[in-house]
Amino acid sequence: MHGGAYAFLSASPRDPTTHIGRGLMERDGSTGRLFSIKYRLTMTADNEIVNPFSTQLIDALTGYYYIVHTVGFSPANIILDGDSAGAKLALALTLYVVENPNREDVKIPAPPGKLFLLSPWCDLSPICATPRSSWAEFVGIDYLHSDDSPVEGSDFSWSVRTARSRSEPLHLPCSDASLSVRLVQRFPSHVYTYEPSEATHDFLGMTWIA
């Protein structure tokens, strides 16, 4: 799933983020097909704030449901990958299907066989540009601007901050250390994360998975 702070980019084949999935296919002979999930963004072309969480999770679940129950792919053969915000969404989707296996109203698919997460934007809680934060440390070399990203995180999370605890695991999937215990038996068999060591942000990484 594509990145873009939930406010930009798309699942279009012309979008630059599609090179990630294509690159995986080129380098992994066992990956035969690529399916990009289009989720609703939190900002319109006119900068209007729309579609707060969990809109994106609903869209991701719908796409995953389609691949498993309509197209017929086995979850065990699916690699769920995402970049930045899309990686966080891939993780949130996996957490949801892991913890909701026996719903009566809808047949939730089993978890994917593998997760591949590139610089996952997992924790939106510490994104304010405080003096000791990564926003301040890497301001001279970071393509993410400290002025913009806290706003984008706020746009995505405003409904969660008013309706739920900020520790909601589907919203902040790296915030709950107990998840490693609760999910270990049904989590995908392989979880891969990639975070550049030169300038790792405060919100990257999932210490409870390690």
Description:
The structure is a single chain. Strand 1 (79-83), helix 3 and strand 2 form a beta-alpha-beta unit. This protein has one domain (18-194): 3-Layer(aba) Sandwich (Rossmann fold). The model is unreliable at 158-167 and 203-210 (pLDDT under 50). It is mainly alpha-helical. The chain is 31% helix and 7% strand. It has helices at residues 18-27, 55-71, 85-99, 134-137, 149-163, 179-183, and strands spanning 79-83, 114-118, 190-194.
**Quaternary structure type:** single chain
Total DSSP E strands: 3
Strand percentage, roughly?
5-15%
- How many structural domains in the coordinates? 1
Main sheet: strands, sense, barrel? 3 strands, parallel
Query: In angstroms, what separates the terminal alpha carbons?
Result: 22 Å
Mean pLDDT: 74
CATH class: Alpha Beta
**CATH architecture term:** 3-Layer(aba) Sandwich
**Helix and strand pattern:** HHEHEHHHE
What is the gist of this entry?
With 210 residues, the chain is mainly alpha-helical. It has a single domain, classed as Rossmann fold. It has helices spanning 18-27, 55-71, 85-99, 134-137, 149-163, 179-183, and strands at 79-83, 114-118, 190-194.
Features:
Rossmann fold; disordered C terminus; mainly alpha; single chain; 7% strand; hydrolase; 210 residues; 3 strands; three-stranded parallel β-sheet; 31% helix
